[in-house]
Amino acid sequence: MRKRQLGAKLRQLRVAQGLKLEDVAARTSMPESKIGRVELGRLGIKPDDLDALLNLYNVEDEALRTVLRSIARHGSRRGWWQTYKDLISPAYADLISLEADAQSMRSYQSTLIPGLLQTVAYARATLSATGMTSTADEVNRLAEVRMARQSVLTRPEPLELWAVIHEAALHPRVKSQPKVMKEQLQSLLDRQELPNVSIQVLPLDASPHVGLMGSFVLFGFPETADLDVVYLENLTNALYVEDHPEVSRYGSAFERLRAAAMPFDESADLIERLKDSI
Question: By the 8 A CB rule, do 49 and 7 touch?
Answer without folding.
Answer: no
